[in-house]
Design brief:
489 residues; alpha+beta; Deoxyribonuclease I, Chain A; Immunoglobulin-like; eight-stranded mixed beta sheet; seven-stranded mixed beta sheet; 8 helices; 16% helix; 35% strand
Length: 489
């Protein structure tokens, strides 16, 4: 095989990365991007994060580690955003109730959509670190199958269903695991700590689900084009840096399925990045970004309801968007209310459109939007109303022995994708790097969770001592609320 220089590689890649979205009669050319912006994108330069996306020419971007800054990022770009899926796009985004938070539909032209699924799989323990530290292949596979594979399964199931409906599908994300195609027998010894071949289960599962790895389809030889995305040589930060003990690997992906043809792919990173088609200095993240160009046959928009926001402050307006609906009455009902709150738009609605909901008329709480269709088919979506000025609250029901489950309730959270509960020793500083025991609240502004060995991440059971529960914002270190202290005895 003829070897190409880095300049020639970049030239070929840029030739393949063609013009951005052009849609005609259902056909579209799209540029898709995945980008972990690292801790909200503010620790090096948020402006550089914006520059990276602008210069990428992307139409649709799956963001990881937004940490409350997704809306700010979309605003800087003048784009649409979805807080449940961490998606931004120059095209309108629709988050139907049927998606259950696993995907968002992108309206690439009126009446035509593609689907984006975006994931950020658990980072620790990290499989290549186990390899570096002497673990056997069986030990590494056991970790991946127990930690990351269950997290990707719901997204793969949703992707398969969308492909069955002939909807173009893109799965972006920081998988925090390498590709099974990259750790082959031929690759052993070509990079630090690549000590033996391993069929990494997450990417193998994506392949078995019928999806295709855009990078590896367009760059077939992993020895010539490894496509390493983590770590990137961004300016050193006090929280952590990288050295020869941290092996680089390809852990950021764009997968695709359905009526889609990939045209080319490339990396965006710091100056000197192999396979880079665009470079930015200073590079603002510990991950490089991946872009890929596609021809797609966009699908007809299915009948759906979607809210413009899942969480609304009382006094603001909410908008419910509807597509391809048969004539029917639109209703809003509050969960758990003694009397149902109803909202009707001209008695009946049909086709495509949007209806405003005046949240001043609604008391705080959880609401379901319903549209009854023919043959007892119902379209639904949901939203929450928070009181103006409401402060988040979290509380524990009772003290506990060390091995017992904890029942924790919270309310008035922002409902961001990665809000979580952390159980920490009383007096722990708010700026700690990460909690020892934690659990996501599933983007719910209010609710209760029974926390125990079957669902908690980190240390369990808790050692005897005095603890608090903290409601934390969006995978970050901002404390939204703290419970009264409680004892583990």
């Amino acid at each position: 095989m003829r070897m190409l220089s880095q300049g020639a590689i970049a030239c070929v890649a840029m030739t393949l990365l063609l013009a951005t979205a052009q849609a005609q009669q259902g056909s579209a050319r799209l540029r898709v991007m995945t980008f972990n912006i690292e801790y909200g994108g503010t620790h090096v330069s948020f402006e550089k994060v914006v520059e990276v996306i602008r210069r990428s020419g992307a139409d649709i971007v799956g963001i990881q580690e937004a940490e409350g800054n997704l809306e700010r990022l979309a605003s800087e770009l003048g784009w649409h955003f979805d807080l449940q899926n961490y998606a931004i796009s120059r095209f309108p985004l629709l988050n139907p109730g049927a998606a259950q938070g696993r995907y968002v539909l992108v309206e690439v032209q009126p009446g035509k959509v593609v689907a984006l699924l975006n994931v950020h799989l658990p980072s620790d323990p990290y499989g290549p670190d186990l390899v570096r530290d002497g673990a056997s292949p069986d030990e590494v596979l056991a970790l991946e199958r127990s930690l990351r594979t269950p997290k990707i399964r719901p997204y793969l199931d949703a992707a398969k269903e969308l492909v069955t409906l002939e909807i173009p599908v893109f799965l972006t994300g920081d998988f925090n695991t390498p590709a099974h195609t990259d750790w082959s027998k031929d690759a052993v010894g070509t990079r630090p700590f690549l000590r033996y071949p391993i069929a990494w289960p997450v990417t193998l599962a994506a392949s078995k689900a019928g999806l295709h790895d855009a990078w590896r389809v367009t760059h077939t030889d992993p020895l010539v084009h490894p496509g390493l995305t983590w770590w990137a040589a961004r300016p050193p930060r006090s929280i952590y840096s990288f050295d020869e003990n941290d092996a680089q690997d390809r852990i950021d992906f764009i997968w695709y399925g359905g009526p889609v043809e990939v045209l080319g792919s490339g990396l965006i990173g710091e100056v000197g990045t192999p396979d880079a088609v665009i470079t930015v200095e200073p590079w603002p993240s510990d991950h490089r970004a991946v872009i890929a160009d596609f021809n797609v046959e966009a699908a007809d928009t299915p009948p759906l309801l979607a809210m413009d926001r899942r969480v609304v402050t009382r006094g603001d307006n909410a908008t419910v968007m509807y597509r391809n609906v048969a004539p029917a009455r639109l209703q809003v009902r509050q969960d758990g209310a003694g009397k149902s709150t109803r909202f009707t738009v001209n008695e009946r609605i049909a086709g495509d459109g949007a209806a405003g909901i005046d949240a001043r008329l609604l008391s705080p709480g959880h609401y379901r939007v319903r549209l009854q269709q023919a043959a007892n088919k119902e379209l639904t979506t949901e939203f929450w109303v928070l009181e103006q000025g409401a402060k988040p609250w979290v509380g524990l029901v009772h003290d506990s022995k060390g091995g017992e489950d904890l029942l924790v309730s919270w309310r008035d959270a922002p409902g961001l994708r990665n809000d979580y509960l952390a159980i920490v020793r009383e007096g722990t500083k708010a700026t700690y790097d990460g909690p020892g025991t934690w659990i996501y609240v599933n983007a719910m502004p209010a609710g209760s969770l029974r926390i125990g060995k079957d669902n908690v991440a980190g240390e369990w059971p808790l050692a005897p001592g005095r603890y608090v529960v903290r409601l934390m914002k969006d995978d970050g270190i901002e404390v939204l609320a703290e419970s009264a202290p409680f004892d583990i005895v």
